[in-house]
Design a protein that fits this description.
dioxygenase activity; extended; 77 residues; little secondary structure
């Protein structure tokens, strides 16, 4: 992980967990620090993640989401 800011992450004494009921849509900026603790429940946790950029964004080759030439990255104007 590359640290981009010196602001410390909250620890368990200051972090505030937010529970989201099944079917809840949670939206936030991709640069917002966020964390999901391990699922210790016997029930699987399902999630759908959508990553969106605008057409002027430079898509980093280091990004973990990569697509080949048959399905190029598209942006929004």
């Amino acid at each position: 992980m590359e640290k981009l800011d010196s602001t410390p992450w909250p620890d368990d004494s200051t972090a505030v967990p937010l529970e989201a009921k099944a079917g809840t849509l949670v939206c936030f900026h991709g640069l917002l620090p966020h964390y999901s603790a391990p699922n210790r429940s016997p029930v699987s946790r399902h999630a759908f993640t959508l990553h969106a950029t605008n057409a002027g964004s430079r898509y980093s080759p280091r990004n973990w989401i990569q697509r080949d030439a048959s399905l190029p990255v598209r942006g929004f104007d």
